Amino acid sequence: MNVLRSAAVLAAAVVIGAATPAAADTSPSPAPSPALPSALYGDGDPQYDGVWRQSLALLAQHTVGVEPPRATVDWLAGQQCADGSFAPYRADTSTPCGAKTMADTNQTAAAVQALAALGGHDDVTEKAVDWLKSVQNEDGSWGYTAGGAGDTNSTSLVIGALAAAGEKPAEVKKDGRSPYDALLKLALPCEGDGAGAFAFQPGKKGELAANADATAAGVLGALGAGLAVEPGKGGAEDAACEKADGPEQAAANGAAYLADALAEDAHLVSALPGAEDQPDYGNTADAVVALAAQGATGQAEKSVAWLEKNAADWAAQSGPAAYAQLIFAAHATGADPRAFGGTDLVKQLGAMGPAAAEQSAEPKPDETKDEKKDESGSGFGVWWFVGVCLVAGIGIGFLISGRTKRQQP
């Protein structure tokens, strides 16, 4: 699920009016730029995705048994504003957050998921959860910004944060409506185009258009899951679309839609203007996680096998969030992230930040702590960066993992 892409993508989005995530990094170099914190993963401009990519990197490392360097965790926790929210990046944390600080639900929810998993920062996560509750919309949803129109991706990301912090998402209500109520209203019926999918947001006339990335997010949200899930048990391969009278059925319907979308080529295609015939690696990784969480392991394994063969260059160009996405996909399907199509995703991610201490009982001697990635690029990052586009005033978009959230006509 999830929202951050590269600054280059953001600039392109401003030009073409498309929504793209700001979570990607430009070419990582042997040492972080002197202008950036040494504890920050990646050396691309963190203006739009610093907290996002840090959160995904830390959560991914934790997922595979790697203890991130303390400085990286402290840096993330230190980005919090006094009201509990997180902005994409605060260069000077000694300056209090003000009206011009672009705090948002996506960065905040991602930080909660990472810090809750790592432990030891209950005060930070509690304040963040309180802030998220305070900006819940009347229909039970969340938008990218406080008070913004609710969307499937942001709502689902917050659900994951609430669950990670020990809350019961179904009991977090505004005017009697829970986030699950909001997701059900964004789920398409079983008749017509896009049957069973989730829309990102309703159109101007209230119409719902199927959106693959929103569907991946919606499946996880409806299941109460976060960005990182345990391998699914299988058994949900042939689920038919049925009227969604609850979040569980909505998740099953969404997974069926994704499985059908992936069936022919094992990957999703880009929704960016001019790139519709190109694979969307980030959305595909998100779909794998969603399918695995639902138990549709057959298609999830086929698609993760496609990622193993084809996603290495994309990840090398895209930065920490992309490596984290692939680690989540590998973990969810039981694949080995340390031997992912010939790439050690864990090593590559660790090489983009300070040296990490291995928690595994059997550390691998070939995994050096200070190896740095030697490939460059400015590709896309991860699922949830809706806000960058909203902040830039270029419409609806979800900037996480290389996907567009904008409704298609």
Set out the fold topology.
Layout: H1 7-16, H2 50-63, E1 66-67, H3 70-78, H4 105-118, H5 122-134, H6 152-164, H7 179-185, H8 212-222, H9 247-262, E2 268-269, E3 279-280, H10 281-294, H11 297-310, H12 312-318, H13 320-333, H14 345-350, E4 357-358, H15 386-392
Helix pairs in contact: 2-4, 2-13, 4-5, 4-6, 6-8, 8-9, 8-10, 9-10, 10-11, 10-13, 11-13, 12-13
Describe this structure in words.
With 409 residues, the protein is mostly helical. The protein has one domain (7-392): Glycosyltransferase (Alpha/alpha barrel), CATH 1.50.10. Helix content is 41%, strand content 2%. The protein is built from 15 helices and four strands. The protein has helices at 7-16, 50-63, 70-78, 105-118, 122-134, 152-164, 179-185, 212-222, 247-262, 281-294, 297-310, 312-318, 320-333, 345-350, 386-392; strands at 66-67, 268-269, 279-280, 357-358. Strands 1-4 form a two-stranded antiparallel sheet. A two-stranded antiparallel ribbon has the order 2-3. Helix 8 packs parallel to helix 10 and helix 10 runs antiparallel to helix 11 (297-310). It is globular and about 55 Å long. The relative contact order is 0.20. Residues 1-29 and 358-409 have low confidence and may be disordered.
Structure characteristics:
single chain; two-stranded antiparallel ribbon; transmembrane; two-stranded antiparallel sheet; Glycosyltransferase; transferase activity; mainly alpha; globular; disordered C terminus; 409 residues
Please tell me how large the radius of gyration is.
19 Å
Q: Assign the CATH class.
A: Mainly Alpha
Number of helices: 15
Domain module count = 1
What is the strand content?
under 5%
Q: Give the total of beta strands.
A: 4
Give the helix proportion (percent range): 40-55%
pLDDT < 50 runs, ≥5 residues: 1-29, 358-409
At the third CATH level, what is the topology name?
A: Glycosyltransferase
Mean pLDDT figure? 83
Distance between termini?
22 Å
Report the order of strands and helices.
HHEHHHHHHHEEHHHHHEH
Strand order of the largest sheet: 1-4
Q: Per CATH, which architecture?
A: Alpha/alpha barrel
Which structural class do you get from the secondary structure elements?
mainly alpha
> What is the makeup of the main sheet?
2 strands, antiparallel
Give the overall shape, derived from the CA principal axes: globular
